[in-house]
Structure formats: C-alpha cells, structure tokens
Design brief:
heterodimer, A: alpha/beta, Rossmann fold, four-stranded antiparallel sheet, globular, B: mainly alpha, 10 helices, binds adenosine-5'-diphosphate, binds magnesium ion
C-alpha cells in the first residue's frame, strides 16, 4: 500500500502552560501511519503518549506543526476517527445499548439503521446478551468491550486507543487483545494504540513507536515484521520485545546530555536490530 | 475510578461497626419508639411530671382518636400539606432554574452566587418579620417562606451537580461531536440528577420545617397552628398529637421520595 500516509503527523510540538512556566509535552514529533496499519506506541508515563493520541483524534487542536487525516487537516473531532479511553467512560445512567448508540447521535442515519448498527457492534464485541444491562453490572473487561463498540459504531476508518487494557487483569487483557486484533483484521481499520505494556505493543503492532520523556519525543520506531496470527511466546516475537525493552530502558535512564543528543540524532534505520540479547 | 466496577454490590470497607446479625431492620426501628412509649407511660403513671405537662399516653391516644374521628386532624394536615405542595413546587422550580443557570454559565455564577450565598445564610425564620411588613400575614407569606426553604438547597445542589459532571464524560461528548444542547441533554443533566434529587429531599424537609415555623407565628389553621393553640390552652394532648402528625407526614414524604429516587436511579445500584 503506497497511497501516502493515512495519518500524517509532521513536526508537531505541544506545550502546556503550567504554573506560569511552559512544559513541552511533545517536541517536534513526526509520525506517518499507513492506511490499515496497526501502530502501537510505548513509553514511560508522562512522555506525551496521550497528548499525541488526543492531537491525532482532534480532541486537542492547540499545537505547532501539521496533522492530516486522509489528506485533510485535523482541526477537531470527527466521526471518521474513533476514540477508546483507558477507563471505558460509559455513562452509568444509560444501558450498554444506549451507551453505544451515543456514538451514532450525530451520524444522521435513520433510526432503524442506527438500531441495526448498535446490534451489529454489540455482537462484534460479544455483548449481545448485555444490551439492556447498566455499566455497573458489567465486569471491567466487558465494560471495555462496550467502550470499543462505542468507538467503532460510526464505522470510523481510524481508531485511537489510549491504554485500553491497562486496568484489566492478565487473562482478560490477553483475550481482549486477540479480539481487538480480529476486529482490526475484519474491519480493515487503521489503529493507533497506546500502551505501557511492551508485550502488548509487539504482539499487536505492525510497528512499535518508542517515545522518550522530557521532552516527549519519538526515540525509535521498531517494525515488528512478523506474520499473524502471532505466537506470544515465539522466539522471533521475544526478540523484537527485547529490542523494544532495550530501547525503552535507554529512554528512562539518565543519560549524559551529549550521549542523549547523539541517540536522538541517529537514524533509527542505522541502529542495530538487536542490541544486547543472547 | 467508579466507571470500572468489577463486581456489583460491592460495599467496600466501612467505618461503622458491623452488626452481628442485621435481622429485620424494620423491626429494630421500632425498639426505640416502643421503649420511649413505655418510659412515657411509666413517667405519667408514676406522676414524675404534672399531668398538665405530660398527659398519659392513653389520654393522648383518646384525643388523637377523637381528632381523627371529627376530621379535625385531617383538616389541619390538609391545610399544611396544601401550603407545602404549592410553596415547595414554586421554590423547587425557581431553585432548579437558578441552579441550572449558575451551573451552566460562569457569568451568571459570578453575578448571582455571592448574593445568593449571603441570602442563604439568613435563616428562613429571619425573613418573616420583613415579609410580614411587605405582604402581610396571609397565605402569600406562608407560600413565600416555604418556597424559600426549598429554593436554597435546590439551587445549591443543582449547581454542584452540574459543575461536578466529570470532564471525562464531557470529553466523550466532544469526541462524538455533541452540540451544546446534546451535551446538556445527554451528559450534564443526567449526570446532575443524583445531586438534584438530594436538593429535592433537603428542599422538601426545609419546606416542611419552615411551614411549621410560619404557622406557629401567623396562622389560624394548619398543624403548626394546632401546636400553638394547644399550648395556649394548655391542652398538651393536642400538642403531642400535632407533633406526631408533623413528624409522621415529614417521615412519609421523605420515605416516598427516597423510594422514587431508588426507582428512577436503578443504574446507581451498587455503584461505589
Ligand atoms: N492538560 C494538561 N495541562 C498541563 N499539562 C499536561 C496536560 N496534559 C498533559 N500534560 C503534561 O504533559 C506531559 C505528557 O502527558 P501525557 O500525554 O498524559 O503522558 P502519557 O500519556 O505518556 O503518560 C506530562 O508531563 C503531563 O503532566
Ligand atoms: Mg496517558
């Protein structure tokens, strides 16, 4: 696929005014995501992952640089871009069905079509029997499924997910990762997923974007390059994981100023594929 | 966050001492009243207090029976209830509008809230002398005083409810391109409902207590009037019957409101 990037982030800098000072959350970040690609973003907390995602989704529009989606500048939220938050943020006063239907509030579709779409997406995330349940009656995993369904119900062509499985137990998390991957394969949606779990990043991503903090920068982009379905324990996947971990560790360790600048300037492509793994 | 609830009905740690066996909560609630009744009976039987001050339960019971049979108690209760219903409806509607206006607009908040808070500090009864001069001691006075009792808690709780709607929910609305009206209808108002209900409950309680206050001062009918009149005549049996009626009506109103609330907010069940 070489139609040009689906999501194009060019030299984006985002600063926040904090206590009279200015905090650079993102510093000159550039990232291209191809159509139908699954990109995962990892990095220590506070390195600007959520900020980058909110900018891409159009939830935040005060930045320097350029962000385009399918060639159009992103200047606000759009129903073509779905968003899934870490806490599912379901409205506790609405049933699951009504929560998902919220996504279609501004779709302009006739009632019957909305109803069909909600049913279809309940089924997609395996919540058909819970249409009339209230959020408090659902487990964490089920609630997040509903959150994903709400993000997808508009049939966006890109879905942004901010640590969607971060609060789930290991078993539920594994299951939801597989389900998300199936949805991605079936619906052919571009996905950008933020996580602090390196295993999750390499298991799901076509490419893994590694960010470093203070100021938030993209340190390296690691292509996973393994066919799906992937085996979590396969040697090849473990190798990529170690590679990502290694890079990540370098971002969090206090490196001398000079060395840090050198790493930042070196082209990711020139770096050794595997750093120090036996 | 409360949004993620793994289990429903999870009570979480409590500070209160757990009751070993909470059998028949309905029954336990009667232990204290029955004990008081026994104490009252013993006290009047033994003549611990003069009979003009503490009439015997039997005597009060007979008075109550007569007042019910003659329709007297029903009449005064109806008069009081009517005042509360009208006054509360006016006060709650005004309080809701004011709370919504202050909650939605920072400008309205800046202009109105300081004065409103100062106004709220003056106890309801403190307004009565001034109001008497302005509107006399007729029905209008009572309605205004009762309405004021409902207005303050209603406005404050509505305001807080609206302001406390989570920005996380508002961000969901932003992502889904909600209009201002959709935000209000689908997020802000439903999110504020629990708090508005608290306002209704406090408002009703305030209305009821200020009603009795204003009837004590200026009325020729109603349960409050019954109290004053009974005291002036030294008919303590009548006073006690009126007190019981006031307490009972208040209790029933609060209880039925509570039930309505639970019914409407089924989604809240089990939310920690
Ligand atoms: N609205 C905001 N106001 C001020 N500072 C913010 C705001 N949002 C994020 N930041 C700061 O920007 C940095 C990056 O935040 P964030 O994108 O949330 O990081 P991450 O998601 O990687 O943990 C942090 O230092 C954070 O404190
Ligand atoms: Mg984050």
């Amino acid at each position: 696929m070489s139609k040009g990037p689906h999501i194009q982030i060019r030299n984006v800098t985002r600063q926040f005014q904090v206590n009279g000072g200015s905090l650079t959350a993102l510093d000159d970040v550039s990232l291209d995501v191809a159509e139908g690609e699954f990109v995962t973003i990892v990095g220590a907390s506070g390195c600007g992952k959520s900020t980058l995602l909110r900018l891409g989704a159009g939830l935040d529009t005060t930045y320097k640089g350029a962000i385009n989606h399918a060639g159009e500048p992103v200047d606000g939220p759009s129903l073509d871009r779905g968003m899934v938050f870490q806490e599912p943020r379901l409205f506790p006063w609405l049933t699951i069905e009504r929560n998902i239907a919220l996504g279609l509030e501004n779709s302009g579709l006739p009632k019957g079509e909305k109803k069909a779409l909600v049913e279809q997406h309940l089924e997609l995330v395996g919540l058909t029997g819970f249409a009339k349940a209230y959020p408090h009656q659902l487990s964490g995993g089920m609630a997040q499924r509903a959150g994903i369904a709400r993000g997808l119900v508009n049939r966006p062509n890109v879905l942004f997910l901010d640590e969607p499985f971060g609060a789930l137990d290991a078993i539920t998390k594994t299951r939801l990762q597989d389900e998300l991957q199936e949805i991605w394969a079936k619906e052919r949606i571009t996905m950008v997923l933020v996580t602090h779990d390196v295993d999750e990043a390499v298991y799901l991503g076509d490419r893994v974007v590694i960010m470093s903090p203070r100021p938030g920068r993209i340190r390296e982009i690691v292509p996973v390059g393994l066919p799906r379905p992937r085996v979590r324990t396969s040697a090849a996947l473990v190798q990529v994981r170690n590679r990502v971990l290694d890079s990540l560790n370098n971002t969090t360790q206090p490196v001398p100023q000079q060395a840090a600048r050198n790493i930042g300037e070196s082209s990711p492509a020139l770096r050794p594929v595997i750093a120090a793994v036996g | 966050m409360a949004a993620i609830s793994e289990t429903s009905g999870h009570a979480g740690p409590r500070f209160s001492w757990p009751s070993r066996k909470r059998i028949g909560i309905g029954l336990t609630a009667f232990i204290l009243p029955v004990a008081l009744l026994v104490l009252w009976w013993v006290a009047s039987d033994r003549g611990w207090l003069a009979e003009q001050i503490l009439p015997s339960p039997v005597f009060v019971y007979e008075t109550a029976r007569d007042m019910i049979a003659s329709g007297e108690i029903l009449y005064h209760t109806a008069v009081s209830l009517r005042r509360v219903v009208i006054g509360f409806a006016i006060g709650a509607a005004l309080g809701l509008s004011l709370g919504v206006a202050m909650g939605l607009s920072e400008r309205v908040e800046d202009y109105v809230k300081p004065l409103f808070l100062a106004f709220a500090q003056i106890p309801t009864l403190g307004w009565i002398p001034l109001l008497m001069l302005l509107v006399g001691i007729d029905e209008t006075l009572k309605i205004i005083v009762i309405a004021k009792g409902a207005l303050v808690p209603m406005a404050l709780n509505t305001f807080t409810g609206i302001r406390n709607v989570s920005p996380r929910y508002l961000e969901v609305g932003h992502a889904l391109r909600f209009s201002r009206w959709q935000r209000l209808r689908l997020i802000v108002l439903p999110g504020a409902v629990p708090s508005i209900f608290t306002g209704i409950r406090y408002g009703l309680t305030h209305s009821w207590t200020s009603l009795v206050g204003v009837e004590l001062l200026a009325s020729s009918e109603g349960l409050g009037y019954l109290l004053v009149w009974g005291r002036q005549m030294f008919w303590l049996d009548t006073v006690i019957v009126a007190m019981i009626a006031i307490g009972l009506v208040g209790f029933i109103m609060d209880k039925s409101l509570n039930n309505t609330e639970t019914l409407i907010q089924r989604w809240k069940k089990g939310e920690a």
